[in-house]
Automatic annotation (TrEMBL):
It comes from Naja naja (Indian cobra). Residues 49-126 form the C-type lectin domain. Signal peptide: none annotated. PANTHER family: MANNOSE, PHOSPHOLIPASE, LECTIN RECEPTOR RELATED. InterPro entries: C-type_lectin-like, C-type_lectin-like/link_sf, C-type_lectin/snaclec_domain, CTDL_fold. The gene is CLEC19A. This is C-type lectin domain containing 19A.
Length: 129
């Protein structure tokens, strides 16, 4: 699954995880603005959750390739990145989103983590979903 934003699913022992996830965020906007002003609809084929847009991409890429691929979906102030999960509710939403596209949930999914064997600079690593 490719969720653009910064998500965290890790699969120990894999050189790269073949599916990705993407999440669009409101980059550059003030967090103090009322939600009604900040609200927007998601582009076609994306699913909204808590003010972010998510999309599943069943494509095989390394973490770095998936990160760049997600960035290609940025639109104006909406920046697309590998998704990050920040709550149990968001975790359930992402699980349901992936499962609705690929029943049985694929084992390997890239979100906002990396493979230090393939990336030379340090990134934050997140724990398994």
């Amino acid at each position: 699954m490719q969720l653009c934003d910064k998500n965290r699913i890790s699969s120990p022992g894999c050189d790269f995880c073949p599916l990705h996830s993407a999440k669009l965020t409101r980059g550059g906007m003030s967090p103090t603005l009322p939600e009604s002003i900040l609200s927007y609809s998601c582009p076609l084929f994306w699913t909204e959750y808590e003010g972010h847009c998510y999309r599943y991409f069943p494509v095989n890429k390394t973490w770095a390739e998936a990160d760049l691929y997600c960035a290609e979906f940025s639109i104006g102030l909406k920046s697309a990145k590998l998704a990050s999960i920040h709550s149990w509710e968001e975790n359930v939403f992402v699980y349901d989103l992936v499962n609705s596209r690929v029943p049985g949930i694929p084992m390997d999914i890239w979100m906002g983590l990396n493979d230090l064997r393939q990336v030379s600079h340090l990134h934050l690593l997140w724990g398994p979903l």
